[in-house]
Every structure is written in structure tokens, then in C-alpha cells.
Design brief:
Blueprint lengths: L1 E5 L3 H12 L3 E5 L3 H8 L10 H10 L3 E4 L2 H5 L4 E4 L15 H13 L5 E5 L7 H12 L5 E5 L9 H6 L4 E4 L3 H10 L1 H5 L4 E4 L1 H32 L3 H9 L20 H14 L5 H24 L8 E5 L14 H11 L3 E5 L4 H7 L4 E2 L3 H5 L4 E4 L11 H7 L4 E4 L6 H6 L3 E3 L4
Parallel strand pairs: 1-2, 1-4, 2-3, 4-5, 5-6, 7-8, 9-10, 9-12, 10-11, 12-13, 13-14
Helix pairs in contact: 1-3, 5-6, 10-12, 10-13, 12-13, 13-14
The structure holds uridine-5'-diphosphate-xylopyranose (UDX).
Uridine-5'-diphosphate-xylopyranose (UDX) binds next to helix 10.
């Protein structure tokens, strides 16, 4: 199969490299010539474990290439994927579809081969596939083509594994020949018994939003239970385990923490709200989730302030982990941003360390002083707050950390440490829902 990926960002790059690894011939296209030059030199635009090696081996094997030229790239393709960004539109939270529609317009005049499948991988509101189809048909009325929805469910930091061992592959199209092309594209996974679920295009588009909204709801639910546990003297980890063992609930995504962040949940929950409101069918549960999660991030900043006695003016606070989760350098909607703001507003001096995210973080958080290690950040600090559960922070020498500090407060927003061990190291230890 010959495949073109329009957009070489997170999703386009990971999907393109994985398709090439299946044996397909793939070209990843991007408007950003500098990015394409770097990719040709095997320099990745993002940090994703295993991606550089996967890209290199497939480029070396001649199956994967990079280009800025849409016209040349789509020639002879069986499937052309649209994998461009759909950020939140400033002002109203709707998904900004301008990049998707611009790609559709470009494809409309570029595709000449009959029976090319145009696949929307970008997360797009229900009905976007109809519009992409209309745009292409208007410019190129003679072309026999199909527009298919095929949402991605990749987690940053685990994206390659998620792509190669998915829980399911969702394909939204009623066109039988297009379904056959998608079967061939995903054949290696299909042979591995990953379920291939065919639905209508609109159902497929909604599946992506519903999945992310459900997961965001699960996280927010356990976060509120954690707050309740603190008031009731219960332990949220026991509650998670106790409810998660029920197969109908499931144990995943029940870790209490500082609130969800990242490139998907905040943006997709908001976009779903807007779609629902536009159709006069409010989704009140998701509305509550979005609001609770927003409030939670600043509340976590206040939790640190309270642990320090309520007045942190002039105090040094060290944050461990800034990215929205481990194994990524992504700072988009990271809870650390609101936490830092709350601490700075209260007059604290904020130092921080993150294994991969400091370069990105420095752009967004110019007032934070970056440290070379966790212990370096903790030097003379009144409190250390663990924000992101990087492996590097899972087995800290707590005695050494404590000895470096001026104070004794350890706020563990990911419940990594046991209360007894932190107390034994001399800490005044605060965690979430325990
Ligand atoms: C998510 C979805 O998992 C993925 O299927 C979709 O395609 C894109 O969005 P991602 O944003 O990479 O992936 O990260 P994920 O691992 O899902 O975590 C999202 C956020 O939820 C993080 O901020 C994480 O810390 C938080 N989280 C997750 C919790 O607070 N508790 C949990 O139990 C799980």
C-alpha cells in the first residue's frame, strides 16, 4: 500500500512511521520546510520514546520519506491521511478546523488517482467528514474518492505501543471499497486480532470525543473522591482498588492527582461541550468535569501553600515534574502551569526540575528557575512538590532530599511515596486523598 500523511506532527509522524514499519510505503508531508529538513536528518520534532529509532530504520529500508510537496506525495497513493492539528479556537473553545479544510482544499486538486481514500485522523467534530467530502467534490467533481474517519487513540509517551497494539481500530465509512482499503492498511494489526470496528462516519467522529470525555470523567470522579477521602479519613488508593476490581468499572484511569492536562482531554472535552450546546443537547456531566478540572489545578497550588502554613511570601518551593505527564516534553495544559501561577501570585520563589520538559516549560513559565536535578531544585527549599510521576522521581533518596532543604514539607500530588517512609525521612508529608 502507498500512504501519504498530511501533517507530520505527533499523530502524523507516529502513525506514518508505524505504517512504514508494517511494510507500507509512506511519505509524511508538512508545510514546515525546516521540520522536514530536520526529519530528513533524523532529528525528531517531539520527544517520544522509540520514535527516532523507528523512523531511522524505516527511512533506511526505503519505506519512509519526508516531503513538503503534497502534489508529488499523493500521486499513486491508496490512502491519504489528514493528520493536522485541530487546536481550540480562541474565544469559544470550538475545534479550529482551518488546517483540516486547508488540507482538504489542497488534496482536492492534488489527487488524480481514482478510488483514493482520504482519511481524517485529526480529531474533528461530527460532520467534518461531510464538509471535507464537499470541499473535494466541489473542486474535483469527476474524482472517485471516499472520505473516511479513523480517529487515533494514542497516548503520548506510549504512542508506538498504542499504535501497534490497539484495543480497537475505528473506521467510519459506509463505502465498501473504502472499507476494503482500510482493511488492507491495517492488515498487520487485524491479523494480530486487534478488533477493526466499522461504523458510520459520524459515529466514528463521535467515538473519539466520547472516549476522551469518558476518560476525563473517570479521572475527575476519582479526584473528587480523593478530596472527600481527605475529609472523611479514607484512603483514595483503597477506594480506587475497591471499585476498580469491579469489571464494569475497571481499574485504569483511577489515579487521583492534580487534574488532567495534555493536548487531548482539555481540548476535546471543551469541543464536545460546544458541539452539544450547538445542538441544544447539553452534556451536563462533561460540563461539570471541565469546570471541576479547571478549578482543581489552582486548588493544588493552594494545597502546597496550606501545607506551608498559609503564607509563602519569599519562600522557596521546588517542583518536581512540569510536563502534563511523564515520558513527554509536552507542556500543553499541564497542571503545573496553574500551580506555578498560584505560587507566584502568593509571592513564592519557584524552582523546578523536569527530565525532558524544561526547555518547553521555560517558554511558558519564564519566572521559574530551572534546576539540574531533583536534589539541586530542593536545595534550601521550604517545600518540595512532586507534580509529575516521572520514573526518575519514584525512588528518590528521601533522606538526601530532606537534608538538602531548608524546610520539611513534601507535597506528593501523585501519591508515589508511602506516608510512613516519607515521615521516617523527616518529612511533613502531604499527598492526595490519603
Ligand atoms: C489521551 C488519551 O489517553 C488518548 O487515547 C487520546 O488519543 C489522547 O488523549 P494523553 O493525553 O497522551 O492521551 O495522556 P493520558 O495518559 O491519557 O493522560 C491524560 C491526563 O490524565 C494526564 O494529565 C494524566 O496525568 C492524567 N491522568 C491519567 C490522571 O490524572 N489519572 C489517571 O488515572 C490517568
Amino acid at each position: 500500500m502507498k500512504i501519504a500523511m498530511i501533517g507530520s506532527g505527533y499523530v502524523g509522524l507516529v502513525s506514518g512511521a508505524c505504517f512504514a514499519d508494517f511494510g507500507h510505503e509512506v511519505v509524511c508531508v508538512d508545510k514546515d520546510a525546516a521540520k522536514i529538513d530536520r526529519l530528513n536528518a533524523n532529528i525528531m520534532p517531539i520527544y517520544e520514546p522509540g520514535l527516532d529509532a523507528l523512523v531511522k530504520s524505516n527511512v533506511d529500508a526505503g519505506r519512509l520519506s519526508f516531503s513538503t510537496d503534497v502534489l508529488r506525495s499523493v500521486k499513486g497513493c491508496d490512502a491519504v491521511f489528514i493528520a493536522v492539528g485541530t487546536p481550540s479556537r480562541r474565544g469559544d473553545g470550538h475545534a479550529d478546523l482551518s488546517y483540516v479544510y486547508a488540507a482538504a482544499e489542497e488534496l482536492a486538486s492534488a489527487i488524480i488517482d481514482p478510488r483514493t481514500v482520504v482519511v481524517t485522523k485529526s480529531t474533528v467534530p461530527v460532520g467534518t467528514g461531510d464538509e471535507v467530502e464537499r470541499i473535494i467534490r466541489e473542486t474535483n467533481p469527476q474524482l472517485e474518492f471516499a472520505v473516511v474517519s479513523n480517529p487515533e487513540f494514542l497516548r503520548e509517551g506510549a504512542a508506538i505501543g498504542d499504535f501497534k497494539r490497539p484495543d480497537r481500530i475505528v473506521v467510519g465509512s459506509d463505502v465498501e471499497w473504502a472499507r476494503d482499503v482500510m482493511r488492507a492498511v491495517y492488515r498487520p494489526l487485524f491479523l494480530n486480532e486487534s478488533p477493526l470496528l466499522f461504523t458510520s462516519r459520524r459515529s466514528s467522529e463521535l467515538i473519539k470525543y466520547a472516549a476522551n470525555a469518558f476518560l476525563a470523567t473517570k479521572i475527575t470522579f476519582i479526584n473528587e473522591m480523593a478530596d472527600l477521602c481527605e475529609k472523611l479519613g479514607a484512603n483514595v488508593q483503597d477506594v480506587s482498588r475497591g471499585i476498580g476490581l469491579d469489571n464494569r468499572i475497571g481499574s485504569k484511569f483511577l489515579h487521583a492527582g492534580p487534574g488532567y492536562g495534555g493536548s487531548c482531554f482539555p481540548k476535546d472535552t471543551l469541543a464536545l461541550l460546544k458541539t452539544a450546546q450547538d445542538h441544544e443537547t447539553p452534556v451536563r456531566i462533561v460540563e461539570a468535569v471541565v469546570q471541576a478540572n479547571d478549578l482543581r489545578k489552582r486548588a493544588m497550588g493552594r494545597k502546597i501553600i496550606t501545607a506551608l502554613g498559609g503564607d509563602v511570601r519569599g519562600m522557596k518551593i521546588a517542583l518536581l515534574g512540569l510536563t502534563f505527564k511523564p515520558n513527554t516534553d509536552d507542556m500543553r495544559d499541564a497542571p503545573s502551569i496553574a500551580i506555578v501561577q498560584t505560587l507566584l501570585d502568593a509571592g513564592a520563589i519557584v524552582h523546578a526540575h523536569d527530565p525532558e520538559g524544561m526547555e518547553e516549560a521555560a517558554k511558558i513559565l519564564p519566572d521559574v528557575i530551572m534546576a539540574s536535578s531533583a536534589y539541586d531544585a530542593a536545595k534550601n527549599a521550604h517545600a518540595v512538590a512532586l507534580i509529575t510521576e516521572w520514573d526518575a522521581y519514584r525512588a528518590l533518596d528521601l533522606k538526601k532530599l530532606h537534608a538538602a532543604m531548608a524546610g520539611d514539607v513534601l507535597v506528593d500530588l501523585r501519591n508515589i511515596y508511602r506516608t510512613e517512609e516519607a515521615q521516617a525521612a523527616g518529612f511533613n508529608y502531604v499527598s492526595v486523598g490519603r
